[in-house]
Amino acid sequence: MATQVSDNLEEVERSISEAAPCHYVLKIQSFSLLAKNGIEKYESGEFQAGGYKWKLVLYPNGNRSRNVKEYLSLYLVFADVGSLYRQGLEVHAVFRFFLLDQSKDEYLVVHDAKENNRRFHRLKHQWGFDQLIPIRTFNDVSNGYILDDTCVFGAEVFVTKETRPGRAECLSVVKDAISCKHVWRIENFSKLDSEYLESNAFFSGDQKWKIQLYPKGRRHGSGTHISLYLALEDSSTLTDGAKMFAEFTLRIQDQLQSRHIAGKVNHWFSESSQESGWAKFVSLAYFHHTGTGCLVKDVCVVEAEVIVHAVASTL
Where does the MATH domain start and stop, copy by copy (predicted)? Predict the structure, then answer.
C-alpha cells in the first residue's frame, strides 16, 4: 500500500509507487553540471497525452522568478500554446510528477492533494510545483534520487475536459497619444490619368497608413469633387477581430494664403473598414480655381495628421 505525506501549505501529496509513469520519462545524466554550466532551466521535448502535446520545465535550483530557493521546481506546460489562442481552447487536466528512487526501484509520486483539475488556457498554460522536493533531500544519496550523478523524472497527464469558450477582447487606450503628420506633394496634377493616387506609407500608432486621393471624385462625388481618404496601408497586420480607433485630419493646402481646406473625423479602422474620408472633400471647380491656392504650378500639397487613441484585439 502506498505511503502518503501531505504538505498543507502547498496542497501537495506525495506517495510511493512501483509503477513507472505511463506518458513521459526524463532521464538526466551529469545532473550536477547543469548548475555549473549556468543552466537554470531545462525544457523537455514534447510528448503526447490525452490528445495534446505537453512538455516538462525543470528548474534544478528552484524557480528564481518566483523566489524559490532550496527546492527543485517542476512544471507541466501545454506545448501548443497557439491553439489556445486561435481556438479559444481550454483543456482541463489532472497530472502527476514522478521521481525515481534508483536504490529501491520505486517512484516518489507528487501531485495535487485534492486531485484538482488544472485549467490550461490562453492566459495560463503552465501548472506545477514551485517546491517539488528540497534540494538537500534530492541530493542525499541515501534517498536514491540521484545515483552516479543521474536522475529520472516522469509525468502522467489525464485530460478530463475540453471547452471552447466564447471570444474575448482586450481594449487598450493609449495614454498621451502622439500625433503623426505626413505631407504629400503631388506634381504634374493636371496630367494625372489614373483613377486614384496613393501616398507613400507612414507610421502612426505602430501601424502603417496612406492617403488616397481621387482626382475626379469617387462614389457620390464622382465628376464633381476631389475625394480624399485615410486608409490602412496593410490591413492584414491587424489580427482577426482587431480594430484601431484613430482621430485624423486631412487637408489640401492653400499655397497662396494658407486658407487650407481641412476635414477632421474619428474612425474605428479594421480589416472590414480599412478607410475613412470624404467623397466630396472639395469641389473640382473650387480646387481648380487659380485664386484658391489648391493647385499652384500644377502642384497640389496634401497633409494628414493621425492620432491613434485605442487598440482593441482578440485574446
Answer: 21-157, 179-306
**Which pLDDT score, from 0 to 100, does residue 103 have?**
95
Residue 248 CA from chain centroid, whole number? 27
Q: What is the pTM assigned to this prediction? A: 0.54
Is residue 200 a contact partner of residue 231, using CB atoms and an 8 Å limit? no
**Helix, strand or coil for residue 235?**
helix
Residue 54 has pLDDT above 80, yes or no: yes
Q: With contact defined as beta carbons under 8 Å apart, do 95 and 160 qualify?
A: no
Residue matched to cell numbers 549556468: 38
Phi/psi of residue 34, nearest 5 degrees:
-60, -55
Please choose, from the candidates 56, 162, 157, 49, the residue with its C-alpha nearest in 3D space to the C-alpha of residue 112. Answer: 157
The DSSP string of 24-57 is EEEEESSTHHHHHTT---EEPPPEEETTEEEEEE
For residue 202, CA distances in Å to 177, 205, 212 come to 16, 10, 13
Beta strand 12-17 with 106-112 is: antiparallel
Identify the band that residue 7 occupies on the pLDDT scale cut at 50, 70 and 90: very low
Q: Which candidate, 182, 155, 157, 206, places its Cα nearest to that of 310?
A: 206
C-alpha cell at 6: 501531505
Round to whole Å and give the CA distance between 262 and 259.
9
Q: Are 191 and 197 in contact (CB under 8 A)?
A: no
Angstrom distance (rounded) from CA 14 to CA 6:
7
Rounded CA separation 252/234 (Å): 24
Q: Please check whether residue 156 is in contact with residue 22, taking contact to mean a CB–CB distance below 8 angstroms.
A: yes
**Is 151 a residue whose pLDDT tops 80?**
yes
**Vertex 313: Cα angle to 310 and 314 (nearest 5):** 155
The answer for residues whose C-beta is within 8 angstroms of residue 46's C-beta and 6 or more apart is 53, 54, 55, 79
